[in-house]
Amino acid sequence: MEILNLLLDGFAVALQPLNLGLILLGCTVGLFIGAMPGLGSVNGVAILLPLTFLVPPTGAIIFLAAIYYGAMYGGAISSIMLGIPGASTAVATTFDGRPLAKQGLADKALTAAAVASIVGGTISVVLFTLFAPPLAHIALTFGAPEEFALMMLAFATFIGLGGDDIAKTIFSICIGLVLAAVGLGIV
Fold this sequence. Notes:
This protein has helices at residues 2-14, 17-35, 40-48, 57-82, 91-102, 106-140, 144-161, 166-180. By secondary structure, the chain is mainly α. The protein has two domains: 2-141, no CATH class; 142-187, no CATH class.
């Protein structure tokens, strides 16, 4: 029940006029950022981060999230229309969207991408809202053995995806570990 009360409070904050304006502005700017090949959602958020100093903290988070979500859909525009994915998240859109655009059905491809973006984003937010508290509790119980197992799984995945040259992959992992250890304190 506490989650529902917090959600209602969140909707009350999000529906304030300033925050609605920031959502609209952020989605519009994010759409243009995502449509530019090579820029992407993460870079767009990083570039526009200084603008958040002009608004209250809650509005700043809302603005950055709107930029991110707008840019995630905006990547579909360059993928479908130009065949150039703006970010790695839009590569799969190129496979189906670009052939549709060549057939003169770009409007259908863009509509399908928008609907998929809305449905996927909504489902992910709902699942995150429901499962974040229990997963955070589980993550806080992780100790050294669990972290070691997680790192071994990551390294095994790297080696599996690395191709035929396993020695080169292991060497790259070791270089990454050495670089990650720089400045690491005891704490």
